[in-house]
Each structure stands twice: as C-alpha cells, then as structure tokens.
Amino acid sequence: MRPEGEDVSDIWLGKSRARTKTLFWEWLFRVWGDDYTPPMLTVRDGDWRLFVNYNGTGAQLFNIPQDIGEKHDVAAANPERVKSLTVKALAWAKSLSEPGA
Fold first, then answer.
1. For labelling alongside 46, which of 28, 73, 87, 88 has CA 20 to 30 A away?
2. What domains does the chain contain, in order, with CATH numbers?
3. Is 49:70 a contact under the CB 8 Å cutoff?
4. What is the pTM of this model?
5. Which of 96, 99, 100 is nearest to 40 (CA)?
6. Cα–Cα distance between 22 and 63 in angstroms, integer?
7. pLDDT one digit per residue (tens) for the chain, 101 residues
C-alpha cells in the first residue's frame, strides 16, 4: 500500500497554509456519548465535508468555514457537489480492499 499522507509538521510548528490533499476516513465504531450516528464514510475536500454510507445513501454535506459546528446540512442545495464527493468517497473506500492499493 502506498502512503497517502501529507507532511503537516509546519502547521504543528505554528505556520498556516492551505490543505493540498483531499482527506478520507471511515467511522468504524459508534460515536459514544452522542445520539448522532454519522454515515461511516467521510471526505473533506477544500471547504466541504461529506458524510455518506457505503452504498452512496445518506449524504450529509457541510461547508466548514460557514458552519464550523456542522449543524446545517446543505446537501439538498448542492447536489452536484454531493455527487462528486460521493464518487470520491466510494472510490477511496473500494481502494482499501484492493490488493496492492
């Protein structure tokens, strides 16, 4: 498997810069102490964060700079962004189980 990380040590040392790569992660366990259970796949691309289920349903989209607490799902108002980020998230999830990925 090839590394997909990004060196952000400069940020830890107090510098500021824009993110250069899309981030992906999956929730493997329930979020304890909270009634909210997000879809298990997440992608952060620029200002946007999308949660989506493995089958492409349940999309929730947030504009982080405008809604840092992720209280206002704007998926319905941004269907093309939801579609493009869903494609990215599902492709990433599929790559996790591919040999040699």
1. 28
2. 21-96 (3.30.1120.10)
3. yes
4. 0.78
5. 96
6. 15
7. 566 667 778 878 888 877 778 889 887 766 666 666 677 899 999 999 999 999 999 999 999 999 999 999 999 999 999 999 999 999 999 988 765 55
